[in-house]
Structures are given as structure tokens and as C-alpha cells.
Amino acid sequence: MRWECKRIGIVVKRNSKEALTTAREIVSFLKQKGLEPVNPTLNKIPSDELGLSSEPQDFDEETCRVIVIGGDGTFLRVIQELTSKELSPVIMTIGAGRRCFYFDIDSSEATLYIDRFLKNDFLVQQYFLGSISIENEKTYSFLNEAVLVGDRAKLARLEVYIGTTKLYDVYGDGLIISTSTGSTAYSLSAGGPVIEPSLASFVITPLASIQLSNRPVVISPLLEIRVLVRKDGVMPRLIIDGIDKGYVERGKTLYFKIYKKPLHVARFKWVRFYERTFERKTLY
User: Can you give the pTM of this predicted structure?
Assistant: First the structure.
């Protein structure tokens, strides 16, 4: 697949001088190439701070490339924005943050790889995303995980189903549904397994469940996961890739399945998954 377009979205980590300086250098380079760098409204910064005169714009189908400068939090925000508009551009990641698990290029070497990005001289790594539907009322996507968590120190009461089969009841702090990619994030910290990203799967990880038999379970993405919020429990909060989406009403059912489009990320270096996973876990 080739991505040919002149509009390139530049997403910058908020309140980061390093990211902003790198972004200005990239904008200048793109202008010299006759391309149209765009300041997405997602940035929430004036365009002149990036060296642009045009007003901030939303992502649209004319933007087939996106450059993310920051850390994992910035990257996850971009994915939420793109999938909400059902867009699937190729993304280049330039690390300028504390946590850069998804990044292969450092800000100090960004300009060395921009030209290769424009010439499609890279490998494409595909990540599958999860999708959540709350009884056809609201739909979200996630790269790492969706979390249902009890509120105000009260326990959540949930029923978990795989297809039509009941897996177990959860009476505890909550529940994590992660992708294989997200298995190394919150789920791992809560006792879940590490799943190789190429093994597309979901991981169901209970949070501090009273039932000792409730253990993490790895599920095929071809199966639908249903989670019922019981009426005799509290309204849990739904947190998707670190973003709080608010309360889920009692009696509502959440449906989890694979998202219809994969995420495309440009790769210039080989990312050693296991080294990066376990080295990262010793940094904090």
C-alpha cells in the first residue's frame, strides 16, 4: 500500500519544548518539499507556534499521513481521534516523551527519516484494535485496553460472557479487556500475561476480584466478549487507553470485538518487542 498526498498532520505532545522544536523543524522541511503540513485541532495550540499560518484543522480523508511527536499518551490520543472519524492514515512516530514504547525514531534523528517517510521507504507494522459498543448507543476503539472500574472505593459487579457462554462474575475493583499489544500495559501490572503482538487476541484480566477462581483469560478476536453491568452494583467508569469516558449505567451490556480497520505505523528500525517490554518495566 502506498500513501500519496500533500497534506500531512503534525501532532505534538502538549507542553513539551523538545516536541515543539522538532515539529517546527519538520514543518520547515515539509514546506521546502512543497507539501502542506497541517496543525490538527487535536493539538490545541496556535498554528504559528508550529510555523504555520493556516488555522487548525480536523483530520479528514485528505490527510493520509500523520507524524506524531511525543510519547505513548500522545500516540493514543491520535488513535482515538482517527478512529472516531474512521480514518486510517500511515503514522510516523518520533519519540519526545517519557514513555515511548510505540516509537522507533528519536527526536534528535527525526529529519534523517522524514525524507524516507515521504518516499514510502519504510516497513508497515499493523496493529489490530479493539472495538467497544454499548448497546449500539456509543462505540469506541482502543489500542491498549478498556477498563471498567468501580467508583468511590465501591466494588464493581460485572458478568462476563464469551459468545453465549458465561465466563464468570466479577465482584471486585473492576475488569480490563486488553489487546495483545496492550497486554504489556495495565493488564500486565494487574497480573495478566505478556502476549506477542502478532498473536491477535484479547486478554480479560479481573482487577482484585473477590472470587479467587477469576483469572486472566486469553480470547480469540473472532469471538465476541460481552460484559453486563449488574443492577445490584455501582455504575463503573469506562476508561479507554487512559481516557475517562464516564459512567456506564447499571443494566447496560458492553460488546467487545475486533475493530474493522488495522492501525498502520511506519517502521524504520526493528523494534525488539521482548527487550523493549522488560527493559521498560525496570525504568520506574
Answer: 0.90
* CATH architecture classification, 7-128+262-280: 3-Layer(aba) Sandwich (3.40)
CATH topology classification for 130-258: Tumour Suppressor Smad4 (2.60.200)
Query: Which pairing describes strands 263-267 and 123-127: parallel, antiparallel, or unpaired?
Result: antiparallel
Q: What is the pLDDT along the chain (284 residues), one digit of tens a residue?
A: 556 778 899 999 988 999 999 999 999 999 999 999 999 999 999 999 999 988 999 998 888 899 999 999 999 999 999 999 999 999 999 998 778 888 999 988 898 899 999 999 999 999 999 999 999 788 999 999 999 999 877 899 999 999 989 999 999 999 999 999 999 999 999 999 999 888 889 999 999 999 888 999 999 989 999 999 999 989 999 999 999 999 999 999 999 999 999 999 999 987 667 666 776 544 44
Delimit the domains of the chain by residue range.
7-128+262-280, 130-258
Name the amino acid, one letter, at 100.
C
Catalytic positions, please?
72
